Amino acid sequence: MPTPKRLNPFYVLLVPLGVAFVVTASAYYVMAFQSVNPVRDAAGNQAHPLFKWLRAHGDTVMLIELAGLAVLTVAAIATDHIWGKSPDSGSAASK
Predict the structure, then answer these.
(1) Which terminus of the chain is less hemmed in, N or C, by CB atoms within 10 Å?
(2) Is residue 21 part of a domain?
């Protein structure tokens, strides 16, 4: 019976970082859309606190997330051959 392959930890790290990037990019899009078409709520407030924070730090956050995605993608591809082996395939005793 073949032994299962080990899971590449870089793929595990890519998933939450990718989700964070999608959420950030979506919020950034909504913020930009609302700045073009301003809508005020009943109290007269125009911007949600998240949008104020994104306006101040959104570019930096998205660049950091993109850099992290790039690094983790390269690391996952570069180490895929290591993690794709079964745990006992590298030992001399099993040959």
Answers:
(1) N
(2) yes
